[in-house]
Specification:
Helix content is 5%, strand content 37%. The strands form 4 sheets. Strands 5-10-7 form a 3-stranded antiparallel sheet. A 3-stranded antiparallel sheet has the order 6-9-8, with no helix packed on it. Strands 1-2 form a two-stranded antiparallel ribbon. The chain has a domain at 76-157. It contains 2 helices and 10 strands; from the N terminus they run ββββββαββββα.
C-alpha cells in the first residue's frame, strides 16, 4: 500500500473554513464526517455508495429519511412532469432554455394517467428545448420523463471513465480494495 501524503492549508473565511490543497494528494477519512454548511466541489466526486439525508417530513424530531442516488455510467440529467393534452390530444412540453446546450442523446418515457391511451407517441422530438406528445385523449394527463447525457465543456474535458485499472496512478494499487473484505 503506498503512503498517502496530505498537505492542506486551512483558511478562515467569514466564519467558515476552506481547505485548499497545496499539492495534489489523496485524503482518506476513516470516520463519519458531518458538514453543517454548503460543501462545494469543483472537480468530480467518487464514492462507494450515496444518499441524501433529511429530517423525516412526517416525524422531523425523531427520524431521519435516507434516499439513494440514481446512478449511471453516463452523466445523465433527468427532467419530468405532467402534461395536459389539448383538444387535439397533444401536449407541447417546454424544457429549460439551457436543455439542448447541456444535453444530448435524449430518451423519452411517458404514461397516460387515469385512462388508457394506446395511441400515445412522440410527435416531435426535442427541438428548441421542447417536444410534443400526441395521440392521446383530449383533456387527459400524461406523465413524462426525459433524460439527456451531459455534453457541456466541463464533462467533455473531464469525462467519467466507468472502468479503470488499479495501479500507481489510480485511486488504489492492484491488490487493494475499497471494501477490504473483497481482497481477502
Amino acid at each position: 500500500m503506498r503512503p498517502r501524503i496530505i498537505i492542506v492549508v486551512a483558511l478562515c473565511i467569514g466564519g467558515g473554513i476552506a481547505l485548499t490543497p497545496v499539492v495534489r494528494a489523496a485524503l482518506t477519512v476513516n470516520a463519519n464526517l458531518l458538514a453543517r454548511s454548503t460543501f462545494d466541489i469543483t472537480g468530480s466526486i467518487s464514492k462507494g455508495a450515496g444518499s441524501f439525508v433529511i429530517d423525516h417530513p412526517l416525524d422531523p424530531k425523531n427520524k431521519l429519511l435516507y434516499h439513494s442516488f440514481v446512478e449511471s455510467p453516463d452523466t445523465l440529467n433527468q427532467y419530468d412532469g405532467t402534461a395536459t393534452l389539448d383538444v387535439n390530444g397533444e401536449a407541447t412540453v417546454q424544457l429549460p432554455d439551457y436543455f439542448e446546450a447541456l444535453n444530448t442523446n435524449f430518451t423519452y418515457q411517458f404514461f397516460p394517467m387515469k385512462v388508457p391511451m394506446r395511441g400515445l407517441y412522440i410527435k416531435q422530438k426535442i427541438k428548441d428545448n421542447a417536444f410534443v406528445i400526441a395521440g392521446g385523449t383530449p383533456g387527459e394527463q400524461v406523465s413524462w420523463m426525459v433524460t439527456g447525457v451531459r455534453h457541456d465543456p466541463y464533462v467533455l474535458a473531464y469525462p467519467i471513465l466507468p472502468e479503470v485499472e488499479k495501479g500507481p496512478n489510480a485511486l488504489l494499487d492492484k491488490g487493494e480494495c475499497i471494501f477490504e473484505p473483497l481482497c481477502k
